[in-house]
Structure formats: C-alpha cells, structure tokens
Specification:
alpha/beta, 47% helix, 10 helices, single chain, TIM Barrel, globular, binds pyridoxine-5'-phosphate
Length: 238
C-alpha cells in the first residue's frame, strides 16, 4: 500500500500570519498521525517563512511516525539535519521569491556536489530523497549520487490534470518511476496532488509514499469551519 506523508507547512503559514502560537503545528501533526498519516513532512526554508527551527526540534521529539525534513542542499541545513536526525531528508531546490517549490532539483548538473553533500547525512542513518522532475537524466543522476529515494515532482501533472496535456505528463511520471525502480531507487511523489488528481497517480507501480499538504490543510479549514463558528457562537449566545 502507498504511504501518506502529510506536509504541515501551511499550518505554520497560518500561525505565522499572526505571529502567535495558533494553530499549533505540533498538535496538527499529532492529529494527522492519529488520522492515519504514515509520516509528517515539514520544509524548513532558508527564510523560515513557515516552519521554524523550533518546530522541527519539537516534531522530532513528538512524532510517533517518521519525520521527513524537506530542505535545500545548503551547509546550514546539512548541520541541522545531522543535529535533529529526522528519518529522512528530501532535498529540494529553493528560490527566495517563489511561492512554493517550483521545479525539481537539478541533480544531473551537480552530481559531485550532491554526492559529497549527502554522505555525512547518510552516515547518520538518515534516508536521502531527491525531489526531481520526471526526467530520465535526473533519475539516472539520482542513482549515481547514491540517494535511496527520489520524489517525483507531480506539479506539472497536477497543472495539466483535466486538460489534453494530462496523459503526457502522467506517462512521463510513470516512465520515470519505472526507470527508477529498475535501477534500484525507491519512488515517492508529490506536489499539487489533491482530492481529484491523486487516484490516477496510484496507477503507477511501486510508489512508496505520496507527500500531500496544501489540499489537506485547505480542506481541513472548510470541514472545520462549521464547528468552529458554532463553538464561538455558543459562547457569544450565553
Ligand atoms: N513534496 C515536496 C518536495 C514539496 O516541496 C511539497 C510542497 O512543499 C509537497 C510535496 C507538497 O505539495 P502540496 O502542498 O502542493 O501538496
């Protein structure tokens, strides 16, 4: 069965909008675990726009499942990973101006750097996953640097879903996943997956884990709003 990694970044986005403690990221992660999440994913960005260092520390201490730390391949993040010891790190490209991770990591153009970069992380027993586009060269390069996992970027597929480009994007993901499996890489996938487009992704063989965030937090707001309004209304109406 394919596992679910719940990305909780946007609980932190909401919290940081007021600079306080609500909604609580750790409580959110615990609810996700109790609901069946197999792992919790959190992206510690260079600019700390959502998840903060303290969140990562507390998640590591609290989680009953696995912590997947998403991060850029920088020296600062390498030190943090080695200190925190998450179950896995997923290396992503990062641009300060972007709203979210826009494309996959260009592994093929930094093979030597990444090979060296992941060694001390793997030495600590942390699994390494590389977030890449569905591209044959990137899959082969990921194997070459010695990562255990790739995470296929499903953003282009999600964008194309319901249009005449959907099948092409889907086949690209499927072919990349097959190639990765054939050369001994484990395959995760994520980005832009939602309640409509996830089913088809499951047609890809041997997927290990899907990382899903924004759509879950969005739905949680809509599902929870009814009760939240009723609770405050009950206080006011007393
Ligand atoms: N996987 C990776 C590597 C990501 O960067 C993100 C977004 O932070 C996700 C999965 C989850 O994407 P979404 O929030 O669109 O579900």
């Amino acid at each position: 069965m394919v596992s679910l990694g719940v990305n909780i970044d946007h609980i932190a986005t909401l919290r940081n909008a007021r600079g306080g403690v609500e909604p609580d990221v750790i409580q959110g992660a615990i609810i996700a675990e109790k609901a069946g999440a197999d792992a919790i994913t959190a992206h510690l960005r260079e600019d700390r726009r959502h998840i903060k260092d303290k969140d990562i520390e507390l998640l590591k201490k609290t989680l009953k499942t696995r912590l997947n730390l998403e991060m850029a391949a920088t020296e600062e993040m390498q030190k943090i990973a080695i200190k925190i010891l998450p179950y896995s790190v997923t290396l992503v490209p990062e641009k300060r101006q972007e709203l979210t991770t826009e494309g996959g990591l260009d592994v093929a153009n930094q093979i030597e750097y990444l090979k060296k970069y992941i060694k001390p992380i793997q030495k600590k027993g942390i699994m390494v996953s590389l977030f890449i586009d569905a591209d044959e060269n990137q899959v082969i390069a990921s194997k070459e640097i010695g990562a255990e996992y790739i995470e296929l970027h499903t953003g282009a597929y999600a964008e194309a879903f319901g249009t005449d480009k959907e099948e092409k994007e889907f086949l690209q993901l499927k072919n990349s996943a097959n190639l990765a499996n054939n050369i001994g890489l484990k395959v995760n996938a994520g980005h832009g997956l939602n309640y409509q487009n996830t089913n088809k992704i499951l047609e890809i063989d041997n997927l290990v884990e899907l990382n899903i965030g924004h759509t879950i937090i969005s739905k949680a707001v809509m599902i929870g709003l009814d009760m939240a309004v009723k609770e405050i209304k009950a206080i006011i109406s007393k």
